[in-house]
Write a structure and sequence with these properties.
The complex is a heterodimer of chains A (517) and B (162). With 517 residues, chain A is α/β, with parallel strands linked by helices. Helix content of chain A is 41%, strand content 15%. The chains are: A alpha/beta (517), B alpha+beta (162). The interface between A and B is large, with 61 and 39 residues.
């Protein structure tokens, strides 16, 4: 009898030694003449348990983790291939509370299947959304997406259906669907996990977008820091072409959709949509002044959808199960689910897909189990390097776009980075300015020059030079960046700085030397 | 122009493969850097001519993106993430350790050409911080000890010829 063992190929699992574990399992199986089928799946997103390996048993999949190559002989001796007891045994995977308490719609298949197996994908419900879309009129597809309440998961939270409608309404012989996979925010990895763990879902979502707005060509703009995702996407695209899910005549519908991956080159700014379009055109990633919107004049001057990976990957379920199904999850105007990424100084970091409405505190403590260091969590940064630092007093904020704006914070792409009480918030504020200076495209002055001045002013504050005047100057500088920048990089760099100043003023006043003039 | 035939051949191949596609410059620069390890100065006018762009336009793109290099790297490329999630897990201490261990700063190569050290802003390995990539292989939860093991695993330092 063949036993199926799952060992992730996800980059994070590999970074913790999954490849060596797979090698050890394979070798041990060969030595003990066991008939074993090894599936390299995506990650379940329980990263403190990685490498997490699973065995298929009649009762369901049984998980063991975190496994090192040294554990493998003992696992075989204990009979882990039948799901037997071992100190690393975690029980049935689906019963692990961290997973059981989630609502996985977009990540439903990630970690379950072989990401490159089209037959696995179809067997697990894949391509039902596209099949339904091919039976609908373009307007009806767009209406379904609009009615679902889906908003851009890249961070701007603009209603996806409205963007699609704008592109659909343009009269143009050529339109484009572009996927922004330049996931540069620290603390975020949902796009990466999805592209590595269920790439066909993104491909299906983009194909539906193409059919909906009449675009025949799509590009995935992928960051160069994600080499594993590049290999997986290219292989999945080739498989989709072979089976006629991509190409001139999708599933005999007469509709065409061509798709390719374009690699970025290490520029955070290219996560901004107009800068990404410039980069896709092979130019410097300098932002464009809007209007015109990309939906009207986008890639090569033509109507273009620009959506984040998770937005596009949410679409197949919406088409398959209907707008109402998706819309039914969530809170207030934030509908559906958000794949939350819990990272940094946290005991149980990972991917948590939940309906909007769960609180930050529940994520940090019920899921995350507090800090990794065991010290109190002092601050969290939500929404990447441009997101505000939130103090403990804001931890009861619900994960909801409006609830976050109401407290002056930002949900962004859903990344949460936790810091314990050893963090120096003046240092983090300085880093925000330094990062802006490093990544500024240089097009507008507040961002290009202001960020460098910001680093200098913070240096003067912490070294005690004219502290009160320099704090005032920093606040004024933040205001200039906020009001005067062309895009979110300069326009939002003040958020982490201002929030650090507001909630952690003592860190800026630590006497590193007396007040000097 | 005294151009290296290997450079010329690489560029011609990249131009032939990507030149006809829309917006090909970055694709071509990737192909050149993947083949040669960096984008040599002499490549810029050749690519400009091949794509009917100005030298300034090509130079502007090469220098805009952090990933493109105009100098060769060391034999082993050590990349450390400097972003917030890694900082929350002592990433800065790891960076200081790496600089001491390799005796170079960020964006430098050791005199013997053995190591280059580069800052990276996020590998998406934020739940396993701090993260490092060494010769293209990603590592998570890298302590100072683990870093030394990974460097040692690259093999013994060659004796300098006398």
């Amino acid at each position: 009898m063949t036993t199926t063992v799952f060992i992730p190929r996800d980059a994070s699992a590999l970074s913790l030694g999954a490849e060596a574990v797979a090698g050890a399992v394979f070798a041990q199986a060969a030595a003990s003449k066991v008939d074993l089928k090894l599936v390299r799946n995506g990650s379940r997103g329980l990263f403190w348990l990685e490498p997490l390996i699973e065995v298929a048993t009649p009762a369901g999949r049984v998980a063991y983790g975190p496994v090192t190559p040294r554990d493998v002989p003992a696992l075989f001796a204990a009979g882990f291939l039948t799901g037997s007891a071992h100190t690393l045994r975690l029980g049935l995977t689906e019963d692990i509370p961290y997973l059981k308490r989630q609502e996985r719609l977009t990540f439903a298949r990630v970690g379950l299947t072989d990401p490159l197996s089209l037959s696995d994908y179809v067997a697990q419900g894949g391509y039902r959304g596209l099949r339904r879309a091919l039976e609908l009129a373009p307007e009806a597809i767009v209406k379904e997406v609009t009615d679902s309440g889906l908003r851009g998961r890249g961070g701007a939270a603009f209603p996806t259906g409205i963007k699609w409608k704008t592109v659909l309404d343009q009269k143009s012989a050529q339109k484009y669907v572009t996927c922004n996979a330049d996931e540069g925010d620290s603390g975020t990895f949902a796009d990466r996990m999805l592209m590595e763990g269920d790439p066909l879902l993104l491909i299906e979502g983009m194909t539906i977008a193409g059919v909906a707005v009449g675009a025949t060509h799509g590009y995935i703009y992928l960051r160069v820091e994600y080499p594993h995702a590049l290999r997986t996407l290219n292989a999945a695209i080739a498989a989709a072409y072979d089976a006629h899910y991509l190409g001139r005549d999708i599933l005999g519908s007469g509709k065409q959709f061509e798709l390719e991956v374009r690699l970025g080159a290490g520029a955070y700014i290219c996560g901004e949509e107009t800068s990404m379009l410039e980069s896709l055109e092979g130019k410097r990633g300098e932002i464009r002044v809007r209007p015109p919107l990309p939906a009207i004049k986008g890639l090569f001057g033509l109507p273009t959808i620009v959506n984040n990976v998770i937005s596009l990957a949410s679409v197949p379920a919406i088409l398959e199960r209907g707008a109402a199904f998706y819309q039914n999850y969530g809170a207030g105007r934030s509908r559906g689910t958000l794949p939350i990424q819990l990272a940094g100084n946290i005991r149980h970091g990972g991917l948590i897909e939940k309906a909007f409405g769960v609180t930050l505190r529940e994520i940090l403590y019920d899921f995350g189990g507090g800090s990794a260091s065991g010290r109190p969590i002092r601050a969290v940064q939500v929404g990447g390097p441009l997101g505000a630092y939130m103090p403990e007093s804001q931890f009861d904020t619900a994960i909801d776009y409006e609830a976050f704006s109401a407290v002056g914070a930002l949900l962004g792409h859903g990344g949460i980075v936790a810091f314990d009480d050893t963090v120096d918030m003046a240092h983090m504020a300085r880093y925000a300015m330094e990062f802006c200076a490093h990544e500024s495209c240089g097009k507008c002055t507040p961002c290009r020059i202001g960020s460098t001045r910001g680093v200098e002013v913070i240096d003067r504050i912490v070294s005690g030079v004219n502290r009160a005047e320099n704090i005032e100057l920093l606040e004024e500088l933040c205001d200039t960046l906020l009001q005067g920048s062309l895009c979110g990089l300069g326009g939002m760099t003040p958020f982490p700085v201002q929030s650090a100043l507001k909630f952690f003023p003592q860190d800026f006043r630590k006497a590193r030397g007396e007040e000097r003039r | 122009m005294g151009s290296d035939p290997a450079v010329r051949e690489t560029i011609e191949k990249a131009l032939a493969r990507h030149g006809g596609r829309p917006g090909p410059l970055i694709e071509i620069l990737h192909a050149v850097q993947d083949a040669l390890g960096f984008v040599p100065k002499e490549a810029v006018p050749m690519i400009a001519q091949g794509l009917n762009l100005s030298i300034a336009e090509v130079h502007g793109v090469v220098t805009f993106y952090h990933h493109f290099r105009e100098q060769p790297q060391g034999r082993h490329v050590v990349q450390l993430c400097r972003a917030e999630a890694c900082q929350s897990m002592q990433g800065e201490a790891l960076a200081a350790h790496a600089k001491r261990r390799l005796a170079i700063d960020f964006n430098e190569t050791t005199a013997d050409g053995r190591y280059s050290l580069e800052p990276i802003y996020c590998f998406g390995n934020c739940a396993c911080a701090p993260a490092a990539m060494i010769d293209g292989e990603l590592h998570g939860r890298v302590s100072a000890e683990r870093f030394d093991e990974l460097i040692a695993a690259l093999g013994p330092k060659k004796q300098q010829p006398r």
